[in-house]
Design a protein that fits this description.
Low-confidence stretches of chain B: 176-186, 260-272
CATH class of chain A: Alpha Beta
Largest sheet of chain B: 4 strands, mixed
Structural class of chain A: alpha+beta
Radius of gyration of chain B: 23 Å
Strand content of chain A: 25-35%
Number of strands of chain B: 4
CATH architecture of chain A: 2-Layer Sandwich
Shape of chain B: globular
Largest sheet of chain A: 6 strands, antiparallel
Number of helices of chain A: 4
Oligomer: heterodimer
Strand order of the largest sheet of chain A: 2-3-1-4-5-6
């Protein structure tokens, strides 16, 4: 992610916005709260090493988000947190409930997202431009630019939208 | 940031190799016909008339055969503006502009040279693409005009047409029976069988070579569009959009997909399969991959 971020900033004026979100499909009762506690504890253990903070959010569709803000500019510690969450859920056989991880970037004033799909183990870009509208050409351009550094989902028909991301 | 695209040497080389092989096949064909004393003059006359007509009237033929209607600037101001802009950028005379009333998204260029060019688009493609994507598609079509692809393909299929003409005549039993004295001396129907077999082989080989050449011309036109617009991803986006529902980037939300995920399936799309040998256009995956490579090159 960090070399890709450098490449994207140089070639497409894409700046990391310091916000990432892990998206979950309905977890068993209490499991989300427990996970939030785990991540908070993990962050506390890291102490001064990270300025990453964590919040929870339930979107209008009823999906839960773990929102990670701040932290290192290249999303390295957000990625580490998202990875540990993924591992603990996978160990319990709940890996399917982990949908995606979204990383917010800024391009001029517009938000641009890189979505990591746990199922495909790859990234894809998402450039919303308005009410259920996205800029496909820009998405293809970004994927071409980052293609050498990021594993990108090679089938654009799987680049599902995430409208109104709470990031 | 330097935005530059050189020429694709590999593509040019393959294009020339294909044309060379095609010429070789045709030379062998002529040699066999000549050796067997077939009256070439008549066949060539027929082919020249057919191809000449196709070459000379191609813009009008397209208008007729596809129901394309030439439109004035008042009727389609936006479309004319894009074509005008592209013509100025590339320094060719502005082609005629036509619209085909069809929901199937498509665009094409025709005309024997840049002075007699016509670009036609369907109402379907106009509805599906935004202005910049339309510009990328029209830049692809104008590249065909600039590369004189209509003339190149007409010439490439010249002898293939003669060969298929002979094959058809053979299948109808139209010749061989009443040859003149000279033919009979050489063994009449035996010669006919050879000519028929050779013609069939020439037709079959040139079928593949012409299609290979056509695919290279498409890559070259994609490249042309990328060079003219400096925006290969716009063409890639347009190609995905007009490819039908299957391969386009979805507007569906990932969360909504999860609700009915049991019903979701992806059909096994054959990628870069043998089927491409028969196609006049390269597969979408290959075209997108090349456009992506050009985009990566531009961003360096």
């Amino acid at each position: 992610m960090s070399t890709a971020a450098v490449q994207l900033e140089a070639a497409a004026a894409l700046k990391p916005a310091g916000k990432a979100g892990v998206l979950f499909k309905r977890l068993p009762p209490g499991r989300f709260d427990q996970m939030m506690a785990d991540v908070r504890q993990l962050l506390q253990l890291q102490g001064n090493d990270t300025s990453l903070t964590v919040e929870e959010h339930t979107d209008p569709l009823g999906f839960e988000w773990m929102i990670l803000s701040g932290g290192s500019r290249d999303y390295q510690d957000a990625l580490a947190a998202a990875h540990s969450v993924g591992q603990s859920l996978a160990e319990e056989g709940l890996g399917d409930l982990l949908l995606a991880c979204a990383f917010r970037f800024q391009q001029d004033q517009q938000p641009v997202y890189w979505i990591y799909s746990y199922k495909q183990a790859s990234f894809y870009p998402f450039v919303p431009t308005g009410e259920r509208r996205r800029d496909n050409a820009e998405e293809l351009r970004l994927s071409a630019i980052a293609g050498d550094e990021l594993p990108i989902d090679s089938m654009p028909e799987r680049w599902y939208a995430l409208w109104d991301i709470p990031l | 940031m330097q935005r530059k695209l050189g020429t694709d040497i590999g593509l040019t080389a393959r294009m020339f190799l294909t044309m060379f092989l095609l010429a070789l096949v045709y030379l062998l064909f002529i040699a066999v016909l000549w050796r067997l004393g077939i009256s070439l003059a008549f066949l060539i006359l027929v082919a020249v008339v057919l191809l000449g007509a196709q070459y000379y009237f191609s813009d009008k033929l397209i208008l007729l055969s596809l129901g394309a209607r030439e439109v004035s600037e008042q009727e389609a101001p936006q479309l004319h503006e894009i074509v005008n802009r592209l013509a100025q950028m590339t320094g060719i005379p502005k082609p005629k502009v036509a619209i085909i009333d069809s929901p199937v998204p498509n665009a094409l260029a025709t005309g024997r040279n840049p002075n007699h060019a016509l670009v036609a688009v369907t109402t379907g493609i106009l509805n599906q693409l935004d202005e910049q994507e339309m510009q990328a598609v029209l830049a692809h079509e104008l590249s065909h005009v600039i590369h004189r692809d209509i003339a190149v393909m007409a010439m490439a299929s010249f002898f293939a047409t003669i060969a298929s003409f002979i094959v058809q005549m053979g299948l109808w039993g139209g010749f061989g029976g009443s040859g003149d004295e000279r033919d009979r001396d050489r063994g009449g129907s035996g010669a006919f069988i050879v000519v028929f077999a050779v013609s069939a082989a020439v037709w079959a080989i040139s079928f593949f070579l012409i299609r290979t050449l056509s695919r290279y011309r498409e890559y070259a036109a994609d490249r042309g569009s990328a060079i003219i617009t400096r925006d290969p991803s716009r063409l890639a986006s347009a190609l995905l959009k007009i490819s039908g529902r299957m391969q386009r980037i979805p507007d569906t939300d990932l969360r909504q997909m999860q609700a009915g995920s049991a019903l979701m399936f992806f059909p096994a799309i054959s990628r870069g399969s043998l089927g491409e040998l028969f196609a006049t256009h390269p597969s979408l995956e290959h075209r997108i991959a090349r456009l992506q490579a050009m985009e990566a090159q531009l961003s360096r």
